Amino acid sequence: MSTFLGIPAPRGVGHLRGDRPFPDAARGALADSQLRRNLGHATRTIRGKRASVVGELDDWEQLRLAGSALKAATMARLDEHLERLEREVTARGGTVHWARDAREANEIVTGLVRKAGTREVVKVKSMATQEIGLNEALEAAGIETHETDLAELIVQLGGDLPSHILVPAIHRNRAEIREIFLRRMPEVDPDLTAEPRRLAMAARAHLRERFLRAKVAISGANFGVADTGTLLVVESEGNGRMCLTLPETLITVMGIEKVVPTWQDLEVFLQLLPRSSTGERMNPYTSAWTGVTPGDGPQEFHLVLLDNGRTAALSDELGRTALHCIKCSACLNVCPVYERTGGHAYGSVYPGPIGAVLSPQLTGVEDNASLPYASSLCGACFDACPVRIDIPSLLVRLRARHVDEQRKRPVPTPEAIAMAAASWVMSSPTRFAAAEKGARLGRVLGRGSGRIRTLPPPLSAWTASRDAPRPPAETFREWWARERGGAS
Amino acid sequence: MRIALFLTCLGDALHPEVGRATVTLLERLGHEVVFPADQTCCGQMHVNTGYQREALPLVRHHVATFEPYDVIVAPSGSCVGCVRHQHAMVARGADDERLAERAEAVAARTYELSELLVDVLGVEDVGAYYPHRVTYHPTCHSLRMLRVGDKPLRLLRRVRGMTLIELPEADQCCGFGGTFALKNADTSTAMLADKMRNVLATGAEVATAGDASCLMHIGGGLSRLRSGTRTVHLAEILASTA
Question: Closest chain A residue to B189 measured between Cα atoms?
Fold first, then answer.
């Protein structure tokens, strides 16, 4: 059921859709042996870490239920919480901006950076700013951006796109990172090795100078507490904290679904998030700031609240649960599809199972129609999700919405014709038995081996890599009728 | 006990040996098996591909066919998963609350084979003999939709003459996923490649599972490679005797 909100909700724009359907984009990734090896190794490692720290908690399932309930309750009164957040941030010296979509958000941020009189910014790792393509918008306005999260830096220097929500450079290994640093860091030691410590030291030297120089920092937010107007960022490296404390101006871009009503809610989410994402009991850095504190930290604070398709997703009763996502990426790490294709194949900054349900809802499913099908519905994502988003059911629902959109076309698709025919045949035992008899003609194909090696399209997609069973000489119902004398 | 066999369309049309094995097994355990001849298909392919409207007549037909029976068994985790978790949803999607309630009542009496044996009939040793090296793949829907847990393994461990070898990364999907295997054939094949690598690493002659569909996928890959390892449904192993 969907609720009409009076005015049409804006569609999400930005890095939310690819230029090729998933199966095409996946093909290239699947053939990249280095990528397959990097992803297999990385996801297996994180899976193991997550499983071990989640296993430590007796009340993990209760925590998941609490997280899910808190999110559902928050979404039900999102407007009130957001207005409260705005009031509290404003009362504490911050300025709140509302952005309908990526374009508006980018304009607001560009204007604010210009006003601060600088041509470069440092950035905290943030999915919202990746989603809206903020770096590109700033670069187009002549403003240089420096990603300071190590993995985001690797992606930025490599002229690459993030391929994972939490570990954006998961598709790169040490040797590749060394090569990127040697190519793109002019001051780097030419004898740099691929030893992780040496790579981290090189990044540290590169970034330190920029932290000290920057007048403006841009961040996202993991949580915004409505009660006090406090924003939070959780991270591992401390580079985020440098950005959040050193520059004079801080601009935070936060999706509207990130609001939580009270500090007490964080008790649940700050347990769920690190264990699900990095597989740690607690993340090394949790930074929280409330408006502006005179003489301490940034003296100007702007909060940009981003819709970009979220209100549209919110209007769907089941679909809105995708907005419960706390961006931990546990579902990516357990997904057998993601593990083999990586994130780029999804064409959106939100890849993997959650991306396959979130991206089409932000853009409209007809604009991202291949993503809901990029899953075998194995259900591993649902089990791993710390806020219990039933991703398989959402995928099925989005597939239905896509099919229903297709029904509006004047000529039905070949698939729709086949599905209607199958439904007609299978809703009658007589017709089904007749179809089984027809299928027996296929027995001519598998003589010799007992297996069928080639079938015509669309079943050729099966036999390209798998044999098909030869239809039996006698179906079960025929055997039953012969042996047991017909119907029961 | 009088048990209605819901064989599934795939079992009826392509793998009758699975149905015959289920009948043999349950009769050997002293139960009466009936085959409601009107049965066709649970509609899972339609639901999971997005064709809920087309699934509706199949749900209606399935409910009407199995409503008269007290205990229903299917040798498929996936089809039982559809009956239990999707039939009522499809009915409600079409605003048919009455059908949804009837579907829920049928679903509550429908069991996957290992659930029926262990939970309802209370047996783990079914008296089977199967002198082969076997590895077991827990299918996704039996594992995560039905939560059958280790029931199939408990049954397999009691089979005489059999060597059961643990499958590495067992809970990873084989890549079948219904129409996923066609729509995303390359990704599906990549998943299958890893599943086959793990199956072959066990050195087993037989890979078994509780779903003919997943076995058709794994078996189709193994036979394409002429690997010398074959797939056999759980019901067939449990039905085997000396």
Answer: A465
Residue B212 or residue A209, greater confidence: B212
Q: Which of A452, A465, A477, A482 to mutate to test the interface with B (most CBs of B within 10 A)?
A: A465
Place of tokens 């597989």: A279
What the block records as the tokens of B198 is 């793990």
> Considering CB atoms only, which of A380, A464, A476 is closest to B12?
A476
Is the pLDDT score of A488 beyond 60? no
Question: Quick check: A465 and B185 CB within 8 A?
Answer: yes
Write the secondary structure of chain A as one string of H (helix), E (strand) and C (coil).
Answer: CECCCCCCCCCCCCCCCCCCCHHHHHHHHHCCHHHHHHHHHHHHHHHHHHHHHHHCCCCHHHHHHHHHHHHHHHHHCHHHHHHHHHHHHHHCCCEEEEECCHHHHHHHHHHHHHHCCCCEEEECCCHHHHHHCHHHHHHHCCCEEEECCHHHHHHHHCCCCCCCCCCCCCCCCHHHHHHHHHHHCCCCCCCCCCCHHHHHHHHHHHHHHHHHHCCEEEECCCEEECCCCEEEEEECCCHHHHHHHCCCEEEEEEEHHHEECCHHHHHHHHHHHHHHHCCCCCCCEEEEEECCECCECCCEEEEEEECCCHHHHHCECCHHHHHHCCCCCHHHHHCHHHHHHCCHHHCCCCCHHHHHHHHHHHHCHHHCCCHHHCCCCCCHHHHHCCCCCCHHHHHHHHHHHHHHHHCCCCCCCHHHHHHHHHHHHHCCHHHHHHHHHHHHHHHHCCCCCCEECCCCCCCHHHHCCCCEECCCCCCHHHHHHHHHCCCC
Q: What is the rounded CA–CA span in Å between residue A174 and residue A195? A: 7
Interface contacts (A, B; CB < 8 Å):
200
User: Which chain B residues are within 8 Å of A26, Cβ to Cβ?
Assistant: 184, 186-187
The CA distance from B58 to B36, in Å, is 15
Does the pLDDT value for residue A3 go beyond 80? no
- The model carries a pTM of 0.95
Q: What is the pLDDT of residues B134-170, one digit of tens each?
A: 999 999 999 999 999 999 999 999 999 999 999 999 9
Amino acid at residue number B67? E
- HEC profile for chain B? CEEEECCCHHHHHCCHHHHHHHHHHHHHCCCEEECCCCCCCCCHHHHHHCCHHHHHHHHHHHHHHHCCCCCEEECCHHHHHHHHHCHHHHHHHCCCHHHHHHHHHHHHCEEEHHHHHHHHCCCCCCCCECCCEEEECCCHHHHHHCCCCCHHHHHHHCCECCEEECCCCCCCCCCCCCCHHHHCHHHHHHHHHHHHHHHHHCCCCEEEECCHHHHHHHHHHHHHCCCCCEEEEHHHHHHCCC
Query: Is the CB of B140 less than 8 angstroms away from the CB of A439?
Result: no
C-alpha–C-alpha distance, residues A123 and A149, integer Å: 8
- Could you give the ipTM of this predicted complex? 0.97
Closest in B35, B40, B182 to A458, CB measured: B182
Taking an 8 Å cut-off on Cβ atoms, the answer to whether A429 and B40 are in contact is: yes
Q: Report CA dihedral (A130, A133, A134, A137) to the nearest 10 degrees.
A: 160
pLDDT of residue B111: 98
